[in-house]
């Protein structure tokens, strides 16, 4: 008599085959087992043999698979999973401690944080690499929000994409940021400059070149950011930049701005960020995107909107008056009365005094506070004319808006596709901004100049 376990395994395969030959006939495996069992009992050794062979074979495969599932060592995978869990815990501990110490010392409003967003052309499976298209970083704190000197934004030229990835890159570009994919490995390459200026920006603005602070990325952008930054570190020899969870930072910040806990779970911070109520704020984009038909896909716009959302939710609770253009859009109405209690969740809606606010301290529904909806009709809130208020022409912005505007001959009649055409003077402007003539210009080469 064969061992019970081997016999059972063989029966399992027979039972599965039995079920698959009779689709819809059984409600569960128990019913299949009962029906198949009657046939199985009547089968002789020869008839059972194929199933026993299969069971035996599978058993061997399973034994091997313990070590080589999809070509990977299971122990290694488990180790990596454990490392991820520990990394996440370390990240949480860091954020909790950082904010706790700031609260204890009364310095929370001045504690700086770096928010990052990266647009990309494609992800190549073969070399496990994201090819960046644009990087935006904003250093902010609750007291001052975001100011122009604390903003970094560059269009990236990663050189030729891997063979076969151009059409994918074109598709991604078309569906999102609309930055044309690079065509040449020589003229469409500036990642060394981007990395140099990025690390320089963080070293300089953090005031400590020995220890670089983490950067915070939204969940859906985190893999891209981690990948691009670690490639920069590896390829150009810069110190590692840690990428932490923006949602978790927001959650802890929000809860520590008041004595009582406001949000019970990080998901609430995530939802608040996902509302993206400043999405319609089109003029906080970089010079490349400001006249495009996708200004909201700009990395610079992403990070500024994030700062606005965080400030909108947190500042009032630490007694900071919102400054238009720094904490909220330039023309936001900041004189709207605040409710007395903020103990309800961010999505609670019970406002009767809502004029046409751009910001709402997290109390209004998405529909009521939708920036784009408001900005189209409101006289209280108009789109922020960033160029008019000085724009972001810091050392780390890729182009000076004031110089860039006059050089754009088509600016009066831009069609949907026209924004992709860059003025030839862009190259010169960018070179000046991008590092004392180190660069060849950011976007000019994409267009054959
Ligand atoms: Zn942009």
Overall description:
This protein is α/β, with parallel strands linked by helices and 449 residues long. Among the domains are: 4-71, Orthogonal Bundle (DNA Binding (I), subunit A); 107-332, Nucleotidyltransferase, domain 5, CATH 3.30.420.10. Helices cover 42% and strands 8% of the residues. It has 14 helices and 5 strands. The chain has a 5-stranded mixed beta sheet, with helices on both faces. Helix 7 (219-236) links the parallel strand 4 and strand 5 (243-245). Helix 1 crosses helix 2 (29-42), helix 4 runs parallel beside helix 8 and helix 8 (246-256) packs across helix 9. The termini are far apart. The protein binds zinc ion. Zinc ion binds next to helix 10.
């Amino acid at each position: 008599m064969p061992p019970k376990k081997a016999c059972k395994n063989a029966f399992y395969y027979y039972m599965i085959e039995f079920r698959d030959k009779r689709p819809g006939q059984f409600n569960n495996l128990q019913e299949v087992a009962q029906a198949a069992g009657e046939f199985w009992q009547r089968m002789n050794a020869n008839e059972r043999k194929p199933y026993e062979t299969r069971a035996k074979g599978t058993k061997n495969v399973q034994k091997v698979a313990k070590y080589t599932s999809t070509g990977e060592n299971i122990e290694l995978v488990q180790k990596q999973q454990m490392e991820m869990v520990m990394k996440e815990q370390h990240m949480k501990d860091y954020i909790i401690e950082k904010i706790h110490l700031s609260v204890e010392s009364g310095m929370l409003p001045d504690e700086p944080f770096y928010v990052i967003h990266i647009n990309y052309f494609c992800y190549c499976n073969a070399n496990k690499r994201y090819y960046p298209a644009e990087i935006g970083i904003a250093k902010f704190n609750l007291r001052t929000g975001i100011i122009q000197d604390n903003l970094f934004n560059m269009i990236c030229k990663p050189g030729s994409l891997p063979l076969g990835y151009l059409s994918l890159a074109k598709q991604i570009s078309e569906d999102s940021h609309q930055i044309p994919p690079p065509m040449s490995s020589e003229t469409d390459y500036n990642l060394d400059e981007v990395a140099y200026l990025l690390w320089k920006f963080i070293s300089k603005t953090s005031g400590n070149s020995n220890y670089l602070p983490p950067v915070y990325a939204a969940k859906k952008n985190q893999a891209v950011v981690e990948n691009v930054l670690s490639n920069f570190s590896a390829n150009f020899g810069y110190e590692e930049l840690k990428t932490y969870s923006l949602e978790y930072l927001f959650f802890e910040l929000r809860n520590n701005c008041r004595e009582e806990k406001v949000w019970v779970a990080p998901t609430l911070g995530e939802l608040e960020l996902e509302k993206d109520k400043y999405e319609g704020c089109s003029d906080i984009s970089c010079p490349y995107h400001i006249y495009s038909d996708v200004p909201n896909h700009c990395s610079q716009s992403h990070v500024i909107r994030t700062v606005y959302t965080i400030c909108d939710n947190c500042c009032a609770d630490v007694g900071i008056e919102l400054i238009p253009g720094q904490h909220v859009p330039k023309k936001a109405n900041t004189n709207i009365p605040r409710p007395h209690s903020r103990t309800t969740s961010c999505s609670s809606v019970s406002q009767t005094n809502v004029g046409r606010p751009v910001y709402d301290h997290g109390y209004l529904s998405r529909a009521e506070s939708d920036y784009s909806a408001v900005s189209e009709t409101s006289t209280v809130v108009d789109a922020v004319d960033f160029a008019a208020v000085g724009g972001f022409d810091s050392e780390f912005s890729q182009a000076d808006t004031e110089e860039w505007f006059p050089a754009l001959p088509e600016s009066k009649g831009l069609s949907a596709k026209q924004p992709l055409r860059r003025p030839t003077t862009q190259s010169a402007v960018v070179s000046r901004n991008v590092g004392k003539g180190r660069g060849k210009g950011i976007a000019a080469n994409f267009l054959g100049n």
